[in-house]
Amino acid sequence: MKLLGLVAAPALLAAAVPAAHAANALQPHATRAAIAGDVLPGLKQNAARTGSVAAGKRISVAISLTPRGGRALDTFVAKVSDPHSSSYGHYLTRHGFAARFGRTDAEIKQLKDYLRAQGLTVGKVHSGNLLVDADGTAAQLEKAFGTKLSTWKDAKTGRCFYANDSAPTLPAAIASIVSDVAGLNNRVQLHHQATPHTVSPHNGPGGGYTPAQLKGGYNVSGTYTGSGQKIALLEFDGFQQSNITTYDNYYGLGSPTPAVQKVDGGSGALGDGQVEVELDIEVLHAIAPKANVTVFEGPNSDAGEVDTYQAIVDSGIPTTSISWGAAESARTTSGINAVDAVFKAGAAQGLGFYAASGDDGSDDAGDGGTSVDYPASDPYVTGVGGTKLTVTSSNVWSKEVAWSGGGGGKSSVFKIPSWQTAVQKSAGGGYRQVPDVSAHANPSPGVSIYSQGSWSSVGGTSAAAPEWAAFAALYNQRAAAAGKAGLGFANPALYSASGTGFHDITSGSNGAYSAGTGWDFTTGWGSYNAATLASKLLG
What we know:
Blueprint: H1 19-25, E1 32-34, H2 43-46, E2 47-52, E3 58-65, H3 72-81, H4 94-101, H5 105-117, E4 121-125, E5 131-137, H6 138-145, E6 149-154, E7 160-164, E8 169-171, H7 172-175, E9 178-182, E10 191-192, E11 195-196, H8 211-217, E12 230-235, H9 241-251, E13 259-262, H10 274-287, E14 292-297, H11 302-315, E15 319-322, E16 324-327, H12 333-348, E17 352-356, E18 373-374, E19 382-391, E20 397-402, E21 409-415, E22 431-434, E23 437-440, E24 447-451, E25 454-459, H13 461-481, H14 491-496, E26 502-503, E27 527-528, H15 530-538
Parallel strand pairs: 12-14, 12-15, 13-14, 15-17, 17-19, 19-23
Antiparallel strand pairs: 1-8, 2-6, 3-5, 3-9, 4-5, 6-7, 10-16, 11-25, 16-18, 19-20, 21-22, 24-25, 26-27
Helix pairs in contact: 3-12, 8-10, 9-10, 10-13, 11-12
């Protein structure tokens, strides 16, 4: 999910609010202000109201606050991510970020006092004082946020969901620092981008590519294995370690057992997203077998999503692979802003995010137009498109074409970032262009994986995203050995490379767009030649 036009940070609250004034701000008659963009787009046009949410239904919400300093955070991230800047790689620690850009304790207290006065239970206040969890009954939430929660039925899919009828409101002093209240609707379910497909024999069981083919095709040196590096996976389903063990043993990878961190109680019982999680883990093991992988499992909900991303940032793990998303048009603008703020905080702390661009070509929303997937379209995320890789019998790159399902196009939310203007296309209309890079995603052949007790070939940009996250881990290992900073938010450096170290993919289409020389809407800069790209980035 995602979306967002970055909004200018509102005026800051005073560091301390006298008790009398704070109390007055919480009175029912106090002036209230709406949280802009915090209502589903086209709700009444695309769904029919079927009733009211039961007053006693308990609902969890995650309240996002705007960072302090207005555009100062954007400026800071631009400097530490620009390889031509003297500040490049001088990232903030978690505590340094909180001190510089987090909300004050007094502001957090004012918010908590208000929520409790409305009967809500306040949960975790996350690192940086920019995200506060709470829960309560539907009736309490309606009172606290000045809106009505109704049940709805989607006109296209028939799916039933609940949502707030209007934008939530808060006392003006509090609303001035709140950017989103996630959890007031449960319409959007993030989908994973894995595409199963069994094909004629290649070297791997199930018909897909092997670790040797992937590493050979992308010129991954045996010297670098990801040893000592950490990679996070954002997941909304679980996995079975026995499947991972079978994969690792078959190829003799000797990979560390993945760790699991459950967020907000985890993702629940195993579902059809299991193949996604196991694909992500096994692709990381294939290319960076010695890296330590942590799987962050959260609920597939708006509040679960933002909380899970925040947990990843709080962990400090430098590289994250993301294979779940939804069309920009399916999300609230405020929800996109909230997730974007977490990515931006991660970038300030030297963290890089790699997200699958989607498996529906240039029409991610499926409405016959052109649209892109979020979070791949976020300016602080490296969007990863799809290709079809061909390797020789000796596992050397032979050719690569754009995969027809690879997501790509222009964002409808984010303006084009400065580091992308050098490749700005007229079709982009001045908006963020997707993807940034690409890797093997075609399902015929896909990647050979072991899941749910059997071998199969699986493709999709869910394979491409961890292929790039694995490269980032290998790069960070090499950079550490050279005494240099990790890759962090990679886009400014990748675009600064101007195509050096990439396989430029010039044929194929994803629907509305065709591949061409240099950057394009189907494959971005292309796939990586690990050895040459790492050398270029290291200078």
